[in-house]
């Protein structure tokens, strides 16, 4: 339990820095571009991220799994070098094909619901450079996580984000939409420089390049599954948001993106590395006993933490939007409860889904991901003409619920794996608390009585979970030992 907590705390610390720097960037973007401009940039960035998913070729997940299971450092280097070769080859292909297409026919961006203005086209062209950098960052993070170099990877990435954000903020303020594209590219490049430096420190060549088709086929087994799933998720998101922009306007896409960004940052801080950590651990030992032990340990840690974090966000959604964005974005309060509910369900999906990949059940994992993408987009497209941006969020929640039912059914029925009664109780109790807090928070912007009562309830829930999971006396004794050690040093 201690090693799980330490690793998740280190990863969570990195995500705190990611969240804080994202808060600053989003605040500047919100004021500089407004809801409509923010919606336009979100769509432009989503196009680039969709291409990046293809260029990365799903090899982040493949590296996470196969590097963890590799016999020695030479084999790990060979896998990383192959990933670099695939990244650069595909990035060059998309640049050679995509840039002339956009220049010769700018109206193509209209398929994503965007007006082909010079600013939009220029932003897309700048993000051509972002694509291979983003794919390389995904590969480096997966590689370093797989070898459990958590401390080195998190410290380097955190420092890069802090420096990159400080340096690039004036670019956004002075150049607007184009500046936002420049910032995203420069920030990703800065992160890559620091991650490459960490790879060199521990004896690896971050930009070694190789083309061995036997190794590519080995990586592609998981890579193609991850690529297909990742592209399905990105494409369904792009399809749904394009429909939202065409049916309503770009400002509603900005409202949805603001709600999504807030929930993403909270989820990333407390839950974002659960899946990759689980896969890296189980790739070394995927026996039935190890899977059950790992799943129960992770759930007992992340369910209470996730409930408190997401419930607090729901309760304080009004102040959070005012602080992180502006009053123009307050209608995102209506969207947040559905996104918060979906993220809570996603915690359990990640924990139960990791053994599918660790035990080489790629087809099952991919099928579940494709069903999720299909249900999510179909529900959203049906609901958007009726309830606008709420339909996007509700579709996401419906897709996640279906995903959880199917993943849970496979986990219990086919794997014959079990989850402890304690964790089942934590899940149900957390769901009730989360629903109460999210609903209460969506009804007010700032009400000290409602929000004060909610904070008190969450504190009581947190103490109850602490008692159930580790025991309050044991937790207090651990704190005292830590304080004594610090005092002694």
**Largest sheet report:** none
Q: Beta fraction of the residues?
A: under 5%
The helix-and-strand class reads mainly alpha
Described by the principal axes of the CA atoms, the overall outline is globular
End-to-end separation: 25 Å
Helix fraction, binned, reads over 70%
Number of DSSP-assigned strands: 0
Low-confidence stretches: 1-14
Oligomerization state: single chain
Indicate the mean pLDDT. 80
- What is the element string, with H for helices and E for strands? HHHHHHHHHHHHHHHH
Count of alpha and pi helical runs: 16
C-alpha-based Rg, rounded: 22 Å
Provide an overview of this structure:
The chain has 489 residues and is an all-alpha fold. Helix content is 85%, strand content 0%. The protein has helices at residues 2-56, 59-69, 73-104, 118-146, 150-201, 213-247, 250-271, 274-282, 288-315, 317-324, 336-358, 362-387, 389-414, 421-442, 448-469, 472-488. The two termini are 25 Å apart. The model is unreliable at 1-14 (pLDDT under 50).
TL;DR?
Helices cover 85% and strands 0% of the residues. The protein has helices at 2-56, 59-69, 73-104, 118-146, 150-201, 213-247, 250-271, 274-282, 288-315, 317-324, 336-358, 362-387, 389-414, 421-442, 448-469, 472-488.
Based on the model shown, name its key terms.
489 residues, mainly alpha, 16 helices
Task: Walk me through the topology.
Blueprint: H1 2-56, H2 59-69, H3 73-104, H4 118-146, H5 150-201, H6 213-247, H7 250-271, H8 274-282, H9 288-315, H10 317-324, H11 336-358, H12 362-387, H13 389-414, H14 421-442, H15 448-469, H16 472-488
Helix pairs in contact: 1-3, 1-4, 1-5, 1-6, 1-7, 2-3, 2-4, 2-6, 2-8, 3-4, 4-5, 6-7, 6-12, 7-9, 7-11, 7-13, 8-9, 8-11, 9-11, 9-14, 9-15, 11-13, 11-14, 12-13, 14-15
């Amino acid at each position: 339990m201690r090693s799980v907590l330490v690793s998740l705390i280190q990863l969570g610390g990195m995500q705190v820095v990611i969240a804080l720097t994202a808060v600053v960037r989003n605040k500047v973007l919100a004021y500089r571009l407004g809801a409509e401009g923010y919606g336009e940039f979100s769509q432009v960035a989503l196009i680039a991220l969709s291409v990046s998913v293809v260029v990365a070729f799903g090899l982040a997940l493949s590296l996470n799994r196969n590097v963890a299971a590799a016999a020695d450092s030479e084999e790990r280097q060979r896998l990383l070098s192959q990933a670099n070769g695939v990244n650069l080859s595909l990035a060059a292909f998309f640049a050679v094909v995509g840039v002339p297409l956009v220049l010769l026919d700018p109206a193509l961006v209209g398929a994503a619901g965007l007006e082909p203005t010079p600013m939009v086209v220029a932003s897309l062209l700048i993000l051509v450079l972002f694509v291979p950098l983003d794919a390389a960052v995904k590969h480096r993070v997966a590689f370093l996580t797989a070898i459990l170099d958590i401390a080195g990877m998190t410290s380097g990435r955190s420092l890069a984000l802090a420096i990159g954000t400080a340096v690039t903020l004036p670019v956004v303020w002075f150049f607007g939409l184009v500046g936002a594209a420049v910032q995203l590219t420069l920030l990703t490049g800065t992160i890559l420089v620091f991650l490459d430096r960490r790879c060199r420190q521990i004896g690896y060549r971050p930009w070694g390049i190789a083309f061995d088709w036997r190794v590519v086929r080995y990586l592609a087994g998981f890579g193609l599954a991850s690529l297909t799933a990742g592209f399905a998720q990105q494409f369904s998101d792009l399809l749904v948001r394009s429909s939202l922009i065409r049916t309503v306007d770009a400002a509603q896409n900005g409202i949805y993106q603001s709600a999504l960004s807030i929930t993403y940052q909270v989820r990333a801080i407390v839950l974002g590395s659960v899946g990759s950590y689980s896969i890296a651990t189980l790739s070394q030992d995927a026996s039935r006993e190890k899977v059950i032990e790992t799943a129960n340990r992770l759930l007992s840690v992340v369910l209470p933490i996730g409930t408190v974090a997401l419930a607090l966000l729901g309760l304080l959604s009004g102040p959070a939007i005012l602080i992180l964005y502006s009053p123009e974005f307050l209608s995102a309060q209506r969207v947040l409860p559905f996104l918060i509910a979906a993220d809570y369900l996603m915690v359990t999906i990640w924990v139960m889904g990791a053994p599918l990949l660790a035990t080489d059940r790629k087809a099952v994992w991919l099928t579940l991901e494709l069903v999720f993408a299909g249900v999510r987009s179909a529900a959203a497209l049906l609901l958007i003409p009726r309830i606008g941006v709420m339909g996007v969020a509700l579709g996401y929640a419906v897709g996640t619920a279906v995903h959880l039912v199917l993943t849970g059914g496979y986990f219990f029925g086919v794997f014959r794996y079990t989850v402890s009664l304690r964790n089942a109780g934590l899940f149900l109790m957390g769901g009730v608390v989360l629903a109460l807090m999210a609903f209460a928070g969506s009804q007010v912007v700032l009400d000290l009585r409602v929000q004060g009562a909610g904070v008190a309830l969450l504190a009581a829930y947190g103490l109850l979970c602490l008692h159930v999971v580790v025991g309050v006396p044991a937790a207090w004794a651990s704190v005292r030992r830590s304080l004594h050690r610090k005092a002694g040093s």
